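Page 42, continued from yesterday. The earlier attempt failed because a stray header line got pasted into the input along with the sequence. Redoing it now with the clean sequence only.
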Amino acid sequence: MVSCVRGKVWDVAVDIRRGSPTFMSWHAELLTAENACSLLIPKGFAHGFQALTPDAELIYLHSAPYAAGAEGALNPRDPRLAIDWPLPFADLSERDARHPMVDEGFLGIEL
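This time it went through. Structure tokens are written below.
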């Protein structure tokens, strides 16, 4: 679960579950300190966000402890994802810019 406690973010979840009827579809919510909304991201979904204010702070609640070796990533600029980011990319981290694009052979993850 992701909540914004300061500022404003565009929070996105992408379905990467193998065989899902919504495979590679995304859903986004505007999370702000003022609207007090949260986004629950189910297992099998990738997650990303775009800070819309310079002071954005998020709180994450996870269902399991962090395991660096289990982490994967998608490139937020990937045209196959076609995420409608509200702002142009200005300060994309080097780490995020190096994430791979999804190739045609990607079948998703199996839970």
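Notes: Strands lie at 2-6, 8-15, 26-32, 38-39, 45-51, 57-60.
Reminder to self: strip header lines before submitting.
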